[in-house]
Specification:
The structure holds two protein chains of two kinds.
Chain A: E1 4-5, E2 10-15, E3 18-23, H1 25-31, E4 34-38, E5 45-46, E6 51-57, E7 61-65, E8 70-75, H2 78-81, H3 85-88, E9 97-101, H4 113-121
Antiparallel strand pairs in A: 1-2, 2-3, 3-9, 4-6, 5-8, 6-7, 8-9
Chain B: H1 14-19, E1 23-27, E2 30-35, H2 39-48, E3 50-54, E4 59-64, H3 68-76, E5 91-97, E6 103-111, E7 120-125, H4 130-140, E8 146-149, E9 153-159, H5 163-170, E10 182-187, E11 190-195, E12 204-210, H6 211-222, E13 227-229, H7 232-241, H8 268-273, H9 279-288, E14 292-299, E15 310-312, E16 318-328, E17 333-341, E18 350-354, E19 360-365
Parallel strand pairs in B: 3-13
Antiparallel strand pairs in B: 1-2, 3-9, 4-7, 4-8, 5-6, 6-7, 9-12, 10-11, 11-12, 14-17, 14-19, 15-16, 15-18, 16-17, 18-19
C-alpha cells in the first residue's frame, strides 16, 4: 500500500496488517538534530491519535501521534544508539515502530502523498 | 483573525541571515537565526574552529558621568561590583540588583582605553531586559550620570580556538588582548570596539561596529575558511556546556547572586560593607549560606531533561527545579542546570528528575561541563 500521512507529520505504510510508522522528512527538518527517541514497548496497544512516542531535538521534545490503532510488534532499536537516524532517513530506515493494525479502514481518513504535499504548501 | 504577533525587530544582518539560509525565530522581540546548517554541526564547528554569531539584539549602552569615579560609583550603587579600580580597557561581569537582592539582569561592563571616553562605561544588556534595565537605571542614577543607548551599533561575536588567527588578518590590534579586555581598533579600516570575551567558554572576540558597516565585517569574517555562521540554538548549547547562566532561565528577579553561585561578581570590599540593593539578604546568604543553589545536573540516561522539570531527592521529596536543560554536543549527552536546596548541592549527590518522564536518575555535577579555554 502507498504511504499515508497525517497533518501532524507522521507517515504510515501498511503491509498486510502490519503498519510501519515514522515522522516525515518535513518534520525531521523542522525538528533539527534528533538526540533522543522514546518508543512504546512491544506488546503495548496504541490508539489512533495517541502520543505513544517522543522525539527530542537539541532544543525541544515533541510527541509522535499514532496514525492508526494496533499493537506494537517491533520498535526500531537502531534509533536508541543513533537517534540521528531520524534525520538521515526519516521516511526509510528512520522509522519508529511497527504495529499490528486493529482496523485497516482507519487509514482512509489520512492524506495521500499528493494531499500531504499540498498541505505542506499551506504551512 | 487571531491576534497578530507583535512586529519583530530585525538586526542589521537580517538580510545576510536569510541569504545564508538561516531558520529565523522570534527571540526577545527580534527575528533571529536559530540555526543555519544545524545546531550540532554549528556547535562543534565553534568548539573546533570559529563561529560567527549575530548578537546585535543585545543592548549596547554607555553610562556617562563627569569622570570615572562618578560613573563607577553610580554603577556600584546598583550592583555588587566595584568599578573604581577597573583598569583602562578592562571588562567585568556584573549583576543589576533589585531591593530584594534579586537579579534584574546580568551584564558586561567595559572601561574604554581612550581618553575621549573618560567618565564612560560601556554596558551590554540582555535583549529581553533592555527596557526594564533602562527604566531602572534612569530612575536610580544621580543627576550627573546618564544612560545612553548605542542602537546605531551592531554586535558580532567570533568564538572558537581559531578566532584569533582570523582576527590577526583583519584586526591585528585585537590579538594581543587577553580575556575580558577591550580596545578600539580598525577592522580592515572600519572603526570598531573589540573585546576578548564571549559566552561560549571558548576564546573569542566581540566586535561592536556601526550598523552601516556590520554586514561588511560579517561577510569578511564568513569568507575566512575557519569561520561559519552560528545561530542561537548552538549559542545556547555552548553556554550551557560552559556552565554560564542565561537570564530568564537560570537568573531572575527572585534569585540572588549567592544562590546563582555568582559570588565572584560580589567585590571583596563590598562583602563587608554592602551598600548595594538587597545587601541585607545577600550578605546574610554569604554568611549563613543560601537556602538553594545553582548546580550542574547530568542525567544518567540518554534522555534530555528540560527547563521546568522537578528535581527530587532519592526519597521522592521535591528539592529543586531544572532551569536549563538540553543536549550537549561536545559532552555528547544530556546536560542541565538548575537549583536545589543547598544540602543537596554537593557534587556526586544522586537525585531524580520528573518532567516529561518521571523519576529519571541524575547526578549533581560540577560546572562547567566543558572546560573554559579563555586566552588569559
Amino acid at each position: 500500500m502507498a504511504t499515508r500521512y497525517t497533518r501532524d507529520h507522521e507517515w504510515v505504510r501498511l503491509d498486510g496488517d502490519t503498519a510501519t510508522i515514522g515522522i516525515t522528512a518535513y518534520a525531521a527538518e523542522q525538528l533539527g538534530d534528533v538526540v533522543f527517541v522514546e518508543l512504546p514497548e512491544v506488546g503495548r496497544k496504541v490508539k489512533k491519535g495517541e502520543g505513544a512516542a517522543v522525539v527530542e531535538s537539541v532544543k525541544a521534545a515533541s510527541d509522535v501521534y499514532m496514525p492508526i490503532s494496533g499493537e506494537v510488534v517491533e520498535r526500531n532499536a537502531g534509533l536508541t544508539d543513533n537517534p540521528a537516524g531520524v534525520n538521515e532517513q526519516p521516511e526509510g530506515s528512520g522509522w519508529f515502530v511497527k504495529i499490528k493494525v486493529t482496523d485497516k479502514s482507519e487509514v482512509d481518513g489520512l492524506l495521500d502523498e499528493a494531499a500531504y504535499r499540498d498541505f505542506l504548501k499551506t504551512l | 483573525m487571531a491576534d497578530q504577533p507583535e512586529t519583530l525587530r530585525r538586526t542589521a544582518l537580517h538580510g545576510l541571515h536569510l541569504s545564508l539560509g538561516a531558520r529565523m525565530v522570534p527571540f526577545a522581540g527580534y527575528e533571529m537565526p536559530v540555526q543555519y546548517e544545524g545546531i550540532i554541526a554549528e556547535h562543534r564547528w565553534t568548539r573546533e574552529h570559529a563561529g560567527l554569531f549575530d548578537v546585535s539584539h543585545m543592548g549596547q549602552r554607555f553610562l556617562v558621568g563627569p569622570d570615572h569615579a562618578a560613573t563607577a560609583a553610580a554603577l556600584a550603587r546598583l550592583t555588587p561590583g566595584s568599578f573604581e579600580e577597573l583598569g583602562l580597557g578592562r571588562m567585568r561581569y556584573t549583576l543589576l540588583l533589585n531591593d530584594d537582592g534579586g537579579v534584574i539582569d546580568d551584564m558586561m561592563v567595559t572601561r574604554s582605553r581612550s581618553e575621549n571616553d573618560a567618565g564612560a562605561l560601556g554596558l551590554v544588556f540582555n535583549a529581553g531586559r533592555k527596557e526594564i534595565d533602562d527604566d531602572y537605571f534612569r530612575s536610580r542614577l544621580p543627576d550627573d550620570v546618564t544612560l545612553h543607548s548605542a542602537d546605531d551599533r551592531a554586535l558580532l561575536a567570533l568564538q572558537g580556538p581559531e578566532a584569533a588567527t582570523v582576527m590577526a588578518r583583519h584586526c591585528p590590534k585585537a590579538t594581543p588582548l587577553t580575556f575580558m579586555s577591550a580596545t578600539s581598533a580598525e577592522f580592515d579600516g572600519i572603526d570598531c570596539s573589540v573585546s576578548r570575551s564571549g559566552y561560549t567558554g571558548e576564546d573569542g572576540f566581540e566586535i561592536s561596529v556601526p550598523i552601516r558597516d556590520a554586514e561588511t565585517v560579517a561577510r569578511t569574517l564568513l569568507n575566512e575558511p575557519e569561520v561559519k555562521p552560528v545561530g542561537l540554538g548552538a549559542r545556547d548549547s555552548l553556554r550551557l556546556e560552559a556552565g554560564l547562566p542565561l537570564y530568564g532561565h537560570d537568573l531572575d528577579e527572585a534569585t540572588s547572586p549567592v544562590e546563582a553561585d555568582l559570588v565572584f561578581a560580589i567585590a571583596k570590599a563590598r562583602r563587608a560593607k554592602g551598600g548595594f540593593p538587597g545587601a541585607t539578604r545577600i550578605l546574610k546568604e554569604l554568611r549563613d549560606g543560601p537556602a538553594r543553589k545553582r548546580v550542574g545536573l547530568r542525567p544518567s540516561g540518554r534522555a534530555p531533561v528540560r527547563d521546568g522539570a522537578k528535581i527530587l531527592s532519592l526519597d521522592g521529596t521535591a528539592i529543586g527545579v531544572v532551569t536549563s536543560g538540553g543536549f550537549g554536543p561536545t559532552v555528547n549527552g544530556p546536560i542541565a542546570m538548575g537549583y536545589v536546596q543547598s544540602q543537596f548541592s554537593r557534587q556526586g549527590t544522586k537525585v531524580t528528575t520528573s518532567g516529561r518522564r518521571e523519576n529519571e536518575p541524575a547526578e549533581i555535577v560540577a560546572l562547567p561541563f566543558v572546560p573554559h579555554r579563555y586566552f588569559r
